[in-house]
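[09:14] KT: can someone run the structure on this one? pasting the chain below
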Amino acid sequence: MAVEGDSYCATADVVALVQLGAYGAGTVPTAAQGLEFQQDRAMEIYSWMVEALGTSAPGPAAFNTTIDTGTDAGVALDALCKQANAQGAAADSLEAAGASSTPARTERVTELLTMFFASKDGIQAVAKLYDGGADTAKNAFTEGRVTTETITSHTEDGFEFDGETVW
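[09:31] RB: done, structure tokens below
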């Protein structure tokens, strides 16, 4: 049985995206099902990081190795994981609540899942910065030279920063 802390986000983050009110014993999904959705999506995010980093990937709060938010890269990785986890779990929750019952809900599920899966590359890239996989990129990031304005593009090969791909 999933518990709060088994994911990168809190139930409140998911409820805010679902916009159907708080989970409870009599809601669809139930509070327990909502936590299961969060945990399932957290494990998917964790697998993305394992793919990028190997076994040194940080997990959610219930894991032995978690994201250290004492660095800029850690703060960024934590925020990306939290956002993606909430988006994926919210899509699952809306589907459980009968998302196909209205076109607006179906569209919202599609939007949330699109954002969830689109976050994979960003999470993997920031996880590499977090783990020190690219020294130049990590130094630029921690020195405050990498911002949304200085990253000129992002591809599956990495970030383009000051005219060069950093990994």
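[09:33] KT: thanks! The chain has one domain: 11-133.
[09:34] RB: yep, looked fine to me
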